[in-house]
Write a structure and sequence with these properties.
Elements (H helix, E strand, L loop, with lengths): L5 E4 L3 H12 L4 E5 L10 H11 L15 E5 H9 L3 E4 L5 H11 L8 E4 L6 H4 L5 H5 L1 E6 L8 E5 L6 H13 L4 E5 L7 H19 L3 H7 L12 H7 L4 H11 L5 H4 L9 H8 L12 E6 L2 E7 L6 E3 L6 H9 L1 H6 L3 H19 L8 H12 L5 H8 L1 H10 L6 H6 L5 E4 L2 E5 L5 E3 L9 H6 L3 E4 L3 E5 L4 E6 L8 H17 L2 E5 L11 H9 L3 H19 L5 E4 L2 E4 L1 H7 L3 E5 L2 E4 L13 H10 L8 H13 L7 H6 L8 E3 L5 H13 L16 H16 L5 H14 L12 H16 L2 H13 L6
Parallel strand pairs: 1-2, 1-4, 2-3, 4-5, 5-6, 7-8, 17-18, 18-19, 19-21, 20-22, 21-23
Antiparallel strand pairs: 6-7, 9-10, 10-11, 12-13, 13-14, 15-16, 16-17
Helix pairs in contact: 1-2, 8-16, 8-17, 16-18, 22-24, 23-33, 24-32, 26-27, 27-31, 30-31, 31-32
């Protein structure tokens, strides 16, 4: 039985976020909250929550139309309707008495197969079902979403032996496949996994930064990049969470943790907030939602200056890039060199990260018997590239244990038994983990499907160069992976595309283009273009653009299906790759756009051509070429990027037959299945018929629009130059409405426009600025 309707009780930020993600999956949601006193609408609280979500940043909805799947109500009038839903998610205030009172009212209204879960982050399941019937307990579980629910991938699923196993499996499958979450099964313990370890890590970092007199900014630099942790580090993360929430989190931990827990007994007495932080909360310095926190932005004329608080004096000072010897050591010698560095920053890194590893090991098997589950929780919930046990493998368990012993600290039984062995090992092409009982078993991931990394473990290389690899991913399907810096398209990637075009027809049924980086591709390697322009190598630029066009064109007309499988940013040349694929299987969080104008160029590898042809063929648009030209011009000239794969459909960057995957870890498997589905009777597309474009007539209309934006300051001088070249391409060049324009003609117009712009000083300035700052220049 599938889950076809969901009720969310509680319309706070978290409840509305959960409702929005369920609506993003295309499932109707009933959103309920209390009836406030003295108001005209009894549904006002839920309605206000939904309204706030529609204007929130980051957006909870992948497309605003998804909000139509949410119906607002109230707990007094609509609780019976909630009881008729397949799944009820309780997301009310974190008070046991409030939750239990709601359950008492709900129990007699539940349908025969209705599932009920709590989104609690702290209250044990056993406490929640106390006093309820055995029948209620069987259908009850904890589904702990992380905030914001759309973007944070972790879902901690808590059950007990009393929980109905098939029901729990149904919820697990729905959350995985439909909501796109990584489901980590947790024991019923305080804080579950991620927040138990994450809270210790945060508290330890704050304590040790104060004790060792390491600045806020330097602490975040040390405890982020070198360990594969987001650049927010600790203090910026607390600013994001809100300093005022920390006392509540720690109060819950203190009330629930056993007296001998390391968070209560460790050297830093982690469960007590430092006095300075308590004073910041009292002063209203609670982070981003307050008047600032550990960081704040101060206006200095037209610019904003980032400042960090001095942990010693409480005064704010401007911050710049950290230049620590410990960070230099990490860049040169890896994480162990950082942990061994004698400076205060090195001591901070050792204390915090060694303590986190020790705490995680101490908690096995209490929170989980599987180190893979613990690492997955930290990766999915805190966006760490690797969890504490993978970090232990990187630095060496024997070295780690020896140093811990030398400092007189106790070594947890798990680490004693591990000895010099690794936690995670590869055998017969599969990853294995050393579990709490000492046994070794195949690593169980939150999403049980094969990913590209699994095939890489088995060394399934078909062809490889410095920027791309062609892999055999079984069942007659190959996968082309980009792995250049930021997956920027360069000559090596073009060469591997050409290799794939030669190899696949003889050995495979089709091709997936996919990688497991955060971003599919940020576009072409503009550094190479700038170098060639500075050398006046115009013929080389012309040849590079032409070669890219012909490679992408060959990809489009390949005799086998090609399915692009992007996630994250797919910009510029990376977007153009996808525009030439037979189909796209996009992760829901794919951000597509043709953004070349930001560096003073127009799309030169078929992006203008493909987008124009798609809008010309759009049966929903007004007749005639001008509406299609105007739409393509608008999208490219403003460098519009979709905020989700769903939005990419609106701009025709994705087509009707392109598909969307909610769970990033299922993306390659879904793309592979799509290739096999297409391969059964695949025929490459026929070349498009010639189109009639109005030439100079269209350019006059587009120029008038650009001029109006220029006059009011919304378009710069060089924007006008780039826009004129874009108009030349999209209008068909020096043609007339009675003439026919073919696909190659549009390629040629793109190439000529790129070459003219590469000669322009304004474009060179934009290219240089982008490479130096990572931001577009408004010149």
């Amino acid at each position: 039985m599938t889950i076809q309707s969901v009720a969310v009780l509680g319309a706070g930020v978290m409840g509305v976020g959960i409702a929005a993600q369920i609506a993003n999956a295309g499932v109707p949601v009933l959103l309920l909250d209390i009836v406030p006193d003295g108001v005209s609408s009894r549904n006002q609280v839920a309605e206000r929550g939904l309204s706030n979500a529609l204007g929130a940043k980051p957006a909870p909805f992948m497309h605003k139309r998804h909000a139509k799947l949410i119906r607002c109500g109230n707990i007094e009038d609509d609780l019976e309707a909630a009881g008729a839903c397949d799944w009820i998610i309780e997301a009310v205030v974190e008070r046991l008495d409030v939750k239990q009172g709601l359950y008492a009212r709900l129990e007699p209204l539940l349908g025969a197969d209705t599932i009920i879960s709590s989104n609690t982050s702290t209250i044990p399941l056993a406490h929640l079902v106390a006093g309820r019937s055995d029948a209620f307990a069987r259908r009850f579980l904890i589904t702990h979403f992380f905030n914001p629910p759309r973007y944070m991938r972790l879902l901690e699923l808590v059950t007990t032996p009393a929980t109905d196993a098939p029901m729990a499996a149904r919820v697990h499958s729905f959350i995985d496949e439909r909501l796109g979450k990584g489901v980590v099964e947790c024991n019923d313990t305080p804080g579950f996994i991620a927040n138990r370890i994450g809270t210790y890590w945060i508290q330890s970092a704050m304590r040790n930064a104060l004790e060792l007199d390491v600045s806020v900014h330097d602490t975040d630099a040390v405890l982020s990049g070198p360990f594969g942790i987001p650049k927010t580090g600790v203090f910026a993360l607390v600013d994001l969470i809100g300093l005022d929430l920390m006392p509540h989190i720690m109060g819950s931990m203190r009330a629930l943790l056993p007296a001998d827990d390391m968070m209560l007994t460790g050297r830093e007495a982690e469960a007590d907030l430092p006095e300075m932080i308590q004073q910041m909360i009292a002063d209203g310095s609670t982070g981003r939602k307050g008047k600032g926190g550990f960081y704040r932005l101060r206006r200095d004329g037209q610019t904003r200056v980032k400042e960090a608080i001095d942990l010693g004096t409480g005064e704010y000072r401007s911050v710049s890039r950290s230049s620590l010897a410990a960070l230099d050591a990490a860049r040169a010698g890896g994480v162990r060199a950082l942990l061994e560095h004698p400076s205060a920053a090195g001591q901070l890194a050792w204390r915090v990260m060694s303590g986190t590893i020790l705490y995680a090991a101490t908690l096995m098997p209490e929170i989980s018997s599987r180190p893979g589950a613990i690492d997955a929780a930290m990766a999915l919930g805190y966006s760490w590239k690797q969890g504490p046990f993978a970090l232990l493998d990187e630095i060496g368990s024997d070295w780690f244990v020896e140093r811990v012993r030398a400092q007189g600290q106790p070594v947890p039984p798990y680490l004693q038994a591990l000895g010099a062995d690794e936690v995670f090992t590869t055998s017969a092409g599969s990853l294995h983990e050393r579990r709490a009982d000492g046994s070794t078993a195949v690593l169980q991931r939150p999403t049980p499907v094969a990913r590209l990394g699994d095939f890489k473990q088995a060394h399934r290389v078909v062809a490889r160069n410095a920027s791309a690899t062609l892999w055999n991913i079984d069942d007659g399907v190959a996968c082309l992976e980009f792995h250049s810096k930021m997956n920027a398209i360069d000559p090596n990637i073009m060469a591997m595309l050409q290799t794939a075009l030669k190899v696949v027809p003889d050995e495979f049924a089709g091709l997936v283009i996919h990688n497991e980086a955060d971003n599919f591709s940020v576009g072409a390697n503009v550094g190479l273009l700038l170098f060639a322009a500075n050398m006046a190598a115009w013929s080389q630029i012309d040849a590079t653009v032409a070669a890219g066009q012909q490679t992408y064109k060959a990809l489009k007309y390949a005799p086998f299906p090609v399915v692009g499988a992007p996630t994250g940013m797919a910009l510029g040349g990376g977007c153009e790759v996808l525009l030439h694929c037979s189909a796209v299987q996009a992760h829901a969080e794919t951000y597509m756009g043709l953004v070349e104008v930001g560096v003073g160029l127009v799309p030169g590898w078929g992006g203008c051509k493909e987008l124009l042809l798609r809008w010309l063929g759009n049966t929903q648009a007004p007749r005639g070429p001008m509406p299609a030209i105007s739409k393509a011009f608008e999208l490219i000239s403003t460098a519009q990027v979709s905020t989700s794969a769903h939005e990419a459909r609106d701009t025709l960057l994705l087509r009707d037959h392109d598909r969307i995957t909610m769970n990033k870890d299922r993306l390659m498997a879904d793309a592979k299945n799509y290739v096999l589905e297409l391969a059964a009777d695949y025929q490459p597309p026929a070349p498009p018929q010639e189109v009639s474009l109005p030439g100079a007539t269209a350019r006059v209309a587009l120029a008038m629009a650009v001029d109006s934006f220029h006059k009011i300051g919304k378009a710069t001088d060089h924007d006008c130059v780039v826009a004129a070249e874009l108009a030349m391409v999209l209008s068909g060049g020096n043609t007339d409405i009675v003439d026919g324009i073919g696909e190659q003609d549009l390629y040629d117009l793109e190439r000529q426009a790129v070459l003219r712009l590469a000669h322009h000083d304004g474009t060179l300035a934009r290219l240089e600025h982008m490479l130096e700052t990572g931001k577009p220049l408004r010149n």
